Q: What sequence folds into this?
């Protein structure tokens, strides 16, 4: 079973930046479709961004488009989420999710907390 570990969360002021990382226990991570979700207190979990396997096509929620960038670091076997121009509304626990063809399981990390506040 694949383990996903997120890191990089923390407290940042509005307008600041953070880079989240999702590390996989199995290589190559490029075989996986990977998505970042977030869940704010009292709200449902929502999709933030995803990157497809191999080809690396990306898509973003409208609320983060132009501010967030999802990318692969194949040398580190990770997927990154660069978050710029952060807003208080970006405060949430961010989760990494991954799945792949031929595998019936859907993998989730434990989450990393992001707080945007002055």
A:
């Amino acid at each position: 079973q694949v383990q996903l570990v997120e890191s990089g969360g923390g407290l940042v002021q509005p307008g600041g930046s953070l880079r989240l990382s999702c590390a996989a226990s199995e290589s190559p991570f490029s075989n996986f479709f990977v998505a970042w979700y977030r869940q704010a207190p009292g709200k449902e979990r929502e999709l933030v961004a995803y990157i497809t396997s191999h080809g690396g096509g990306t898509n973003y929620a409208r609320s983060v488009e132009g501010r967030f960038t999802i990318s692969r670091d194949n040398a580190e076997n990770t997927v990154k989420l660069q978050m710029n121009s952060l807003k208080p509304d970006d405060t949430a626990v961010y989760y990494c999710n991954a799945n792949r063809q031929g595998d019936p399981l859907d993998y989730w990390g434990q989450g990393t907390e992001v707080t945007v506040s002055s």
